[in-house]
Amino acid sequence: MIKVSIIVPIYNVERYLKTCIESILNQTLTEIEIICINDGSTDSSLDILNSFSEKDKRIRIINKTNSGYGSTMNMGLSVAKGEYIGIVEPDDFIKNNMFEELYNLAEKNSADIVKSDFYYYFGENNQARKTGKISRHLASKVTNVKEYPEILKIQPSIWSAIYKKEFIEKYKIKFLETPGASYQDTSFAFKSLCLAERLYLTTNAYLYYRLDNENSSVNSHSKVFAICREFEEITDFLNANKTLKEYTNTIKLIKQYQTYFWNLKRIDSSFRNEFIDKFSDTFKEYYMNGEIDENFYKKISKKEFNSLIKNKKNYISRIQSKLDKETAKLKRRKLFSIRINPSRISIVLFGRQVVEV
């Protein structure tokens, strides 16, 4: 019996692939299948996979022409045979007890989803930092977004969880198949968290999420607006589920606003004005529909928001000033910072973590 099907979507990751696959093969849970889907890689990724599959029959290789992340993930979901489904990105790696512990928690609690914390991993200096994304007051119990809508504030991080296959199939949860797009975990994570009646969160961390390319800018037009398509999918989902929308919509709007602003910081400056046009038109429509309430303004500056929907020129000026301040703050943090979150405290001096408690 296969307890967990682990999907590994692969495209030109020869540099990290061996480390990733070895970490999965070393799992203490042996009743697994490893579904490696090669999405038309042009490097040596397929050769690396073939060398592993010759030694371990739990590896299933699907080799296809390039069609994008969403298509690759949906193919993995469709062929998975396990009771639960896990995801490991090929440039990340995991602790050897990850899937055994998540599976045991899922079985013990009859969970649709078990979601854990994870580590930020900096390959340049081989350092890892636990993110603290899972709040202690939400962890170690069966819950759902009806009880705690703030669960939706958790970073999507779809690869730090396992999903019951019956649950995924029951609600037909899939990824958007937008060729060449990015951020295609956003709507999948939102819908699955909304629909899970039995969700179990743990503050334990197992996966090392590589941040080597964290500061790379987005300079592809299709990728600039990919996040918008994800939130359009979420909006359609909530409009079709009115009960869910009643207690999740404000959180979704806050998350969308914050994500769009985050995207503004990452995209190439040549696309910034065009993206702000999209940003403004989208939230102006929400405002005209009466969806923006006072709870929204508890997290989003009303002055900044009004500038976005009523005076884009002024908003651009405000945002540039804000971006400049954040850049300066980031430079200071690289020299010295104290970080406190629900699960850890760390001190960073001259870019190196010197204390963690």
CATH architecture of the largest domain: Alpha-Beta Complex
Q: Please report the number of helical segments.
A: 13
The CATH class of the largest domain is Alpha Beta
Low-pLDDT segments: none
CATH topology of the largest domain: Spore Coat Polysaccharide Biosynthesis Protein SpsA, Chain A
Summary tags:
ten-stranded mixed sheet; single chain; Spore Coat Polysaccharide Biosynthesis Protein SpsA, Chain A; 2 domains; 357 residues; three-stranded antiparallel sheet; 13 helices; globular; alpha/beta
Structure characterization notes:
There is one protein chain. The protein is α/β, with parallel strands linked by helices. The chain folds into two domains: 4-210, Spore Coat Polysaccharide Biosynthesis Protein SpsA, Chain A (Alpha-Beta Complex); 221-338, no CATH class. It is built from 13 helices and 13 strands. The protein has helices spanning 14-25, 45-53, 69-79, 98-109, 165-170, 186-195, 221-224, 226-239, 242-266, 272-288, 294-297, 302-310, 312-335; strands at residues 4-10, 32-39, 59-64, 84-87, 93-94, 113-122, 127-130, 142-143, 161-164, 199-210, 336-341, 344-349, 352-356. The strands form two sheets. Strands 1, 2, 3, 4, 5, 6, 7, 8, 9 and 10 form a ten-stranded mixed beta sheet that branches. A hairpin with a 2-residue loop joins strand 11 (336-341) and strand 12. Helix 1 packs parallel to helix 2, helix 6 packs parallel to helix 8 and helix 8 packs antiparallel against helix 9. The relative contact order is 0.11. The model has no long low-confidence stretch (mean pLDDT 90).
